[in-house]
Amino acid sequence: MCSVLGCDIMVSALFVFGYAAVFIVPVLSCRPNEYKTNDGQCCPMCNEGRVVQRDYTAYSGTRCRFCDLGTFMNQPNGLSTCFPCTSCDTGHGLFVKRDCTATTDTVCDVLNGYHCKDLIDSNGCSLTEKHSQCAAGQRIKEPGTSRSDTVCEDCQPGFFSKDGVNCTAWKV
Q1: Structure pTM?
Q2: Does residue 56 contact residue 33 with C-beta atoms inside 8 Å?
């Protein structure tokens, strides 16, 4: 069944004993700003920050509701639930850089002593790792940052490091 909104045609072929039977089946195609319901109807989408409370009917438009606290929707949609906001776990080296709103997810950043292992665009991080510790006999060549791990290097001959921080010359 095609609505006033339009339809595409799907062609299906069935091959039986070398003969082809062709079936033409209309397929409902919604516009870019619409979503398809379970019963195949096209309804106007809800805006960012909202989700569908009730589908479009002949008597009323799509009824949308705001996302609950702790959830968000960052795109026009035909969904019935908002996405849960990301939690920034300080126990895993993350802190809240920007709070979640009805239209944007939480942005997490990295605590001191950690570096990001999974960068989300240029703003946030979803997975961290503690900075590596240099071993005895090594020194810190480059300290760790929020975006890179510590770089260690071996002490030169005639130098030592028992704490893995700086190399010290042997006393003669």
Answers
A1: 0.69
A2: no
